[in-house]
Amino acid sequence: MNIVLVGAGNLATNIGKAISRSGHQIVQIYSRTEASARTLADILGCTYTTSIDEVFEDADLYMIALKDSVLKDMAELLVKGRENRLFVHTAGSIDMDIIPALRRGVFYPMQTFSKQREVDFREIPIFIEAAHADDRDLLKSLASDISGKVYELNSENRKYLHLAAVFCCNFANHCFRLGEKLLDEHGGMPFEVMLPLIDETARKLHELTPQEAQTGPAVRWDENVIGKQMQLLSDTPDLQHIYELLSKSIHHDKL
Amino acid sequence: MNIVLVGAGNLATNIGKAISRSGHQIVQIYSRTEASARTLADILGCTYTTSIDEVFEDADLYMIALKDSVLKDMAELLVKGRENRLFVHTAGSIDMDIIPALRRGVFYPMQTFSKQREVDFREIPIFIEAAHADDRDLLKSLASDISGKVYELNSENRKYLHLAAVFCCNFANHCFRLGEKLLDEHGGMPFEVMLPLIDETARKLHELTPQEAQTGPAVRWDENVIGKQMQLLSDTPDLQHIYELLSKSIHHDKL
Do A168 and B112 touch (CB under 8 A)? Predict the structure, then answer.
């Protein structure tokens, strides 16, 4: 497929590389930021533009990998004059119908992308949706050339999937961050001492459910330890509140 | 060293195996529950007892791997008549001085132990403390035979380390559990679709700090997505409260 990639941020960069590697062709990058557009175009060996009017009109697919907040406006601008083409966005939480084209779809790779890290796209689940069956097959075929894990999912269910991903990734990562803060402020152990514990916490889930895997004072409801730990957090009421809420949630989950 | 192991639960089982493998000798298991004591004694090829009076009096080390709530009482019973011996407990959050013996210490392997999973003790950090320098050296030597990661840490700092571990392990795991619940209740994706995301979330921390690694709507403070996700949780106020609190905590962390 000949693909125009709209966006040049983290996600666009990662998807663009994966698509190029899969044998499909990114023919053009569009981004409002010329430096980003040029950088990504250089990596992928394709052309770029910063003007909507110059976006090719005959691509097989327009993939919009932009921040959620600008998606709607950009989709409208792009579709104009290219009404018969296939457009997808890559956002987990956004409805397919935000794209005002008959041939519209979603191509959502669920992963946490950071500029500093290369990810292995074969392992990343991609969730596909399309308004038309032919386009769905096209998107599934493209996704399968990139990843071993391709699923169909409608917009309503994808919203919950994305919400679950916020818990499993962003919120879990914030728990790591709060642990790091406690170490920084008390007792001089570097955060790296936590890595074997964090690795095992993730690894366990390949064999046990999160509920089976749970350990620690909250699931045992060890009031003595919980009381003392609440005390340790008395100078940081926000942290104390999070501790209390999550401990109770763990406890109630077990009941 | 000849070691009496007090306890026959998850932690005792894992430590007992690791000690046996290291060339040291577990000579006796004590547990109030005969079935558990016998099972572990069979695994380790040693004797066991359910009576405090029959606990050997001449071991080099008494390692108490019990629930925090019974630690104090058990330590008192054990020390009586064995006043010159070396006693340690294995609890992250408990003061060394809970043991009423001159030769007392702590031997805390920081990991999440589940019965169903074998762990690689070489990778588990062990935190050592002792009232006397000779005993500290003895414990460090034992720990080094089991693990490649041995640290000295006093009781005060260990309390914060253990609290940090609750965030990095138990609370992060609960975020995985809440994600699983959302998937169970909406939209029929199996939890295993989350595993690549969870694995990458943990793996990233070997290269980036948790703050650098953060992604998602809260760190971008994408009010549109946050508002919609709060809405999706309106039927589950407890979950909604956790969502709000963690999102704000991520946002404030960035400021």
Answer: no
